[in-house]
Write a structure and sequence with these properties.
Structural class: mainly beta
Number of strands: 25
Order of helices and strands: EHEEEEEEEEEEEEEEEEEEEEEHEEE
Number of helices: 2
Shape: globular
CATH topology: Tachylectin-2, Chain A
CATH class: Mainly Beta
Distance between the termini: 31 Å
Strand content: 35-45%
Largest sheet: 6 strands, mixed
Radius of gyration: 19 Å
Number of domains: 1
CATH architecture: 5 Propeller
Helix content: under 10%
Length: about 375
Amino acid sequence: MTSVWSAHAVAAIADKPFATLPLIDRAAVVPVLPGIDLWDYWPVQEIDGRTAVIAGGALHMLLSAPVLPDPDSRHALARLRLMHQTAAGWRDLGPLLPDGFSPGSREWSGSAIVSPEHDRVTLYFTAAGFRGEAEVTFAQRLFECSAPLSVSNGLPALGAWSEPVESVIADGVIYTRDMAGGGAIGTIKAFRDPAWFRDPADGGEYLVFAASLAASTSPWNGAVGLARREQGQWTLCPPPITADGLNNELERPHIVHHAGRYYCFWSTQRKVFAQPGPAGPNGLYGMVAEAMSGPWLPLNDTGLVFANPAEAPIQAYSWQVLHDLSVISFVDRPGLAEEPVDPAVARRHFGGTPAQPVQLALEGQSARLA
C-alpha cells in the first residue's frame, strides 16, 4: 500500500508550532578531521538496528572529500571513509574502499550491517556515475559488498572487500532510470541512499532508498523507494510513501521499529518543494505505520519532526534516527540566514563535520525533541 505525503499536510506546518534544533555556534565548530570535509554518515548496525559496539566504540562510514574552495563541489569527489568513535573521540581509519574499486566515479550514502558474530560487515552504498567517466554524470546505482572485520590492539579493521554486486536496478516503470533532472543540486532525480532494515514481525529484509517516480508528470516526483529480498534476490516493491507533485527529494530515508510501530524518516530542504505550493523548512520528516504494508500517517499530522532554527535554516542536514532514538547529522552552513550565492561565503560557513546528536521521543503519531 502506497501512502501519500500530501500538500495538505505540509500546508499545515505554517499553522502549527514545531520543534527546532538548538542554534549551532559557528565559531565553536571544530572539524574532527582537518583538511577533509565530512557529511552524510552512518554507524555500522546490528541486524536489529542497534548501533554495533565494536572495539569499545562505534564504527562509522562517512562521505568525505578534500576541503575545496566551493563546498558544493564535494559531491563530485565524494569517497567513503571509515572512522571509529569512542569516548576518547574520533579516529580516522582512512578510505573505506580501495582506489578504483567502486563501480562509480564517486560514492554516495548507504548503510552497513555487522554479522551476529561480529566477524563480517556488509555495506550497501550508492555508486554515483561510472568508473572512469570523462564527464561527471548523475547516474545512481545501488551496490553491496562485504569484508571481514577484525580488532587488533583495540583498533577495528576491515579486510579485503568482496566484489560489489548491484543490489537492485531501477526499472523505469515504478522508479525512474533518468537521474539527470535539471542537473543542478536539488533537481537531480534519485535512486540512492540504500538503508537496510529487517522487519521484526517476519524477519523480512528490506532496502529503503531515495527514489523518483517513473510515471509522474510532475518535476517534483520524490518517493521513498523499497525493495525486499526474496530467495536471496532483491525485488522492487511499490513505494511505501510518495510526495508526487509536492517534493523532489526525500533523502536518506530509513525505518526504525519502536514500541511496535514502524517509523520512516527522511531529510528534505525547502528549495526542493514544488513551486508554487506549500513548503516546509529544512528538517527531519517522517511517517508512521502499524506494519510495513502501511498505511503510513504523517508524524505530528504534518510529517515535520523538527527543523533548523529560523535564523539558521541551513545549519545542519542529513539526519539519521538511530535505534535508541538519538539523531545524528552533519554541520552544514551555520550562521547563514539563506543559501549563499558566493562560494567563498559558503566555504567560510561550511562545517563539514558531524553535528552534536539530539534525542527524539516518539509516541504513536507524535514525535518531539526529548
